[in-house]
């Protein structure tokens, strides 16, 4: 991590940099003008909004995008081609509009068959990539979107030989299949998507490149703050076998909160995320059941226990200080103190860790559903997202508190997604020793699957259903949760596969690819990826 300190330049803004900021403001105005002047119900207008979204620039144009989509809502008709229908459906649903999938895709998917007409290969291919992208927004039980996913994937893969004759089409198909827009954090693929933005659209390209540089600089400063905080805690000195990955942990915050204005919030959020990993390792690698019971009781009392070993006391102090810091921030910024609720969330997390720890140490075989229910809490996701909910200024009412703790709600569905995808692997993914449960193992011991392959298939079906539930809650404009919080939860879900897809060397190739793409400074990118060494 020392290499991180050598990559910063704290010099004040030069005249050239000040001029660059003024040019940036002018380009923002030019793009706003483009959005408002383009025919509002046209395919061109949809494509412009989609490009802005994919480049991670939509926070600049919230009002203009809402204006465009208001016009697009009533523009759909039966004469639309597959590309226009698919793109309009996806953008409208992503922005909370109540649209019915059958109205958009019924004319293309009839009697279990795909009806495409006699369009050109390029036109058909673009339409099917758009349909494939749209199929990921299933909010539960929408059979036509499941059919759209199957047919689009089959057609695109079956016709690759023809598609590969056109380099641009081939890149578009590969990008759409690998990085469906709804399930990828926009900022992590924005630079890669720039290849599809016409050179003629120099204003949008230049604006995106400025944003990339600004965001990179911002994240560098955030990471420095996180590293300094982590070193100051001293936990890595006491827990030699524990994960020591504050840079990786901050990537979660970078993904969840994309708006550049939320820099302080990202740094704050990384702290409880880091502590979840630490506590997880303490339960898996270090404590006895007696010590872990005292540890859990101390957190629930919000007090120090003299009987605990030194490293547990250090961890307790870190939990207390971080929670008090976040509570003070919320009180200072928004006028209420959430300390009681955050203490309760920490208590629930510790209880779940303790239950899991007892099961694994005693070798108990519990029902898979019981393990999963507890594992959702022990993932730490509900606790972290509760911190985020408050950091973003959302008031804690009886209704929102109920929703934050709802086993079928948005935050717990994100946690379920993480737990299921995590359990498809094992502790070996990060070359750890220690105790680690697995839904698949308990599922097989229950006799519900004849083979590991059958169990994995069942888990993947559960993953698909969980995504549908995340979409149902995350895309609902009638949700009492703010649009910003719902978007953050969706980003957390989008990040899960990136964080839990390991290669044979126990590394995260997709995460490595995204970070090397995001950070133009190779020295910094190398330092950022050093946790994998």
Descriptive account of the structure:
Its cofactor is Mg(2+). Keywords: Lyase, Magnesium, Metal-binding. Pfam families: Terpene_synth, Terpene_synth_C. Residues 17-174 form the Terpene synthase N-terminal domain. This protein is mainly alpha-helical. The chain has two domains: 16-207, Glycosyltransferase, CATH 1.50.10; 234-500, Farnesyl Diphosphate Synthase (Orthogonal Bundle). The chain has helices spanning 2-5, 15-37, 43-54, 62-73, 82-94, 101-105, 121-134, 143-158, 160-163, 167-178, 186-193, 202-233, 235-238, 246-256, 263-286, 289-301, 310-334, 339-362, 368-378, 381-391, 398-404, 410-423, 439-445, 452-474, 483-499, 509-518, 522-528, and strands at 109-110, 113-114. It has a two-stranded antiparallel ribbon with strand order 1-2. The protein starts with a helix and ends in a 5-residue tail after the last helix. Mean pLDDT is 90; it is low at 3-11 and 426-433.
Entry summary:
The protein is 68% helix and 1% strand. With 533 residues, the chain is mainly α. It folds into 2 domains: 16-207, Terpene synthase, N-terminal domain (Glycosyltransferase, Alpha/alpha barrel), CATH 1.50.10; 234-500, Farnesyl Diphosphate Synthase (Orthogonal Bundle), CATH 1.10.600.10.
